[in-house]
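Entry type: protein chain
Record version: 2
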Amino acid sequence: MPHRLARLVVVAALASCAASVRGEDSLLFTNENRFYLAPIVGASWGTLIYYEPADPGEPSEPGQPIMNGNLFTAGGAAGVAFALDRGQVRLEFEGRYRDNFGISREVLPGIPASLQITDNWSTMANVWRDFSITDRLGIYAGGGIGAGGYGVNPSISFANDVIIGSTMTAFAWQAGGGVLYAFNERVTLDLGYRFYSVGPGDSTLQLIGNGTPVASTAVRTSFATSEMLLSLRIYEPFRRWR
């Protein structure tokens, strides 16, 4: 009998703790489905990968990293959080932009050349699973798929020749996780890591000589990056604050 009573007390205590974390008093999650908006900023350590041309009908050769950049990234997300036991599932749409980066070197003595990656963007549809640890602290994991792209802009100073770059757009994906902290039931801080990748995809480079198109070629590249992101998730942002 004492052992049964002890087990009953333990079960009751665990149930009480779970209720306090997941119940109406929880600051991190509530028992209702909620809309949210979230501004995002962070650091992105990116790599541009180049794929060697292959014979017609053959796949491109494996890519080689050709330049790296430490970039700033910013954007935002809008989503809906669906309440679950001890957490929630979030479905969201995210858009972000990343800094330009590039390299410059001499291809021949006295002839400099550069390559700039510009307009680096992504739009993703994400699924995240949040888990509560306490009523304020939690963790999450998940990922998303979508599209991304950037401009490939080479430049070379040689006589009157000019190279005109173009944009690359391709399938993109990301995965990651992080830590959550609730300031109150409406505002949650999100610190997370993500790996993001887009491509490979083709960009068409056009050579212009003395104002006349001379030749064009397709260049295949991809972009991958590790990112540390800080986000402030605001639930029911259009609802009146009390």
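Comment: The helical segments are 2-22.
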